[in-house]
Please model this.
Amino acid sequence: MDLGLQGRVAMVAAASSGLGLAVARALAGEGAHVSICGRDPARLARAHAEVAACGPGQVFSMPVDLTDETAAAGWVERTAEAYGRLDIVVTNTGGVQFGPVDSFRVPDFREAVEGNLLPHISVTLAALPHVRRNGWGRLLMITSESVRQPHPESGLSSVARLGLLGYMKGLVEALGSAGVTVNVIAPGFHRTPILDQQFGVDVEVEIAKVAERIPLGRVGDVADFGALVSFLAGEQAAYITGSVVVADGGNTRGF
Model:
């Protein structure tokens, strides 16, 4: 299936590893020009090379701390200057501390909001003039299945990330007439470096335990997640907006 992404300009935040890198690789594979950012310059350089090898498009990368709204906006503007346009903006952040909701204090919640909600807004606000101008655009926000299926061990995530749904719904109304769709993608457990780090030396045992409670019997493959985001960025997804697309192997039990 041709997704119509050849020559489109895509930005993928927090793309030096994990799900962000998988999305950048998938978009590059569809022929898009891809701009990525990350905090660690060395890891970002490795990601740049990986993404560049995936397709014929150009790759731009820039070290950015997304909690700095000025730096986030600067990345957007540098990308727009480099390519002359923006078509697809994929916002993404790192993770939060694990633990039950009653184990944290106000400073912890403040840090979670600043690190996992506000960067989506900073990047989006900077990108809006560019995607509006085109008459075509895709805003895709990567969050977590915790916005649909709260986990006892993910108290901060459930609180900090939920605000993104309200922001997304407001943008749907504001951007519909401009031909810009806005969707949230909510991944469950995927095999990423941060998951390996979280589980440590017992990673295989712990992942097997997680897989037992997922209907599909396994954690997600990041390449599949990249393909999902690419589809939502493509021409065939033109009538999908205002949705929360859950990719969690059936772990979300609610309607």
